[in-house]
């Protein structure tokens, strides 16, 4: 349970606290990838030790690291393709509300683009 909490919380914490002044997205992704890879390597070492103390640690770490790298690469590429499609067809949220979004906000009694509530009386 403790390893799940630590390995699960470390990458988002690294993302939040890394490159806060420059907000460089590529550096943030690289730092989260590095932190995740370190967590995966440590968990693979622990699994190799618990499962069979005389087993090959290197084999276990390489297996899980290769799986993580390949899955991360695939999801990064797919994310970029989806982002390009969203921008191409104009589905991105550029700060302005869509007509359906404005209608829903007005039904809820809120002003579009603001955080405050408007009175309908």
TrEMBL record:
Per UniProt, the keywords (alphabetical) are: Membrane, Transmembrane, Transmembrane helix
InterPro entries registered for this protein in UniProt:
ER_body_metal_sequester (IPR052843)
Report whether Membrane shows up as a keyword of the record.
yes
* Residue spans crossing the bilayer: 29-50, 62-82
Fetch the PANTHER family from UniProt: MEMBRANE PROTEIN OF ER BODY-LIKE PROTEIN (PTHR38937), MEMBRANE PROTEIN OF ER BODY-LIKE PROTEIN ISOFORM X1 (PTHR38937:SF2)
List the protein's name: Uncharacterized protein
Q: Which organism is it from?
A: Brassica carinata (Ethiopian mustard)
Task: Cite the source lineage.
Answer: Eukaryota, Viridiplantae, Streptophyta, Embryophyta, Tracheophyta
């Amino acid at each position: 349970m403790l390893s799940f909490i630590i390995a699960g919380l470390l990458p988002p914490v690294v993302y939040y606290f890394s490159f806060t002044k420059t907000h460089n997205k590529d550096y943030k992704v690289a730092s989260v990838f590095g932190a995740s890879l370190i967590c995966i390597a440590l968990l693979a070492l622990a699994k190799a030790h618990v499962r069979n103390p005389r087993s090959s640690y290197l084999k276990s770490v390489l297996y899980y690291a290769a799986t993580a790298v390949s899955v991360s690469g695939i999801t990064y590429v797919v994310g970029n393709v989806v982002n390009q499609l969203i921008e191409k067809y104009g589905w991105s949220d550029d700060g302005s509300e869509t007509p359906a979004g404005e209608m829903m906000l007005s039904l809820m009694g809120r002003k579009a683009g603001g955080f405050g509530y408007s009175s309908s009386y």
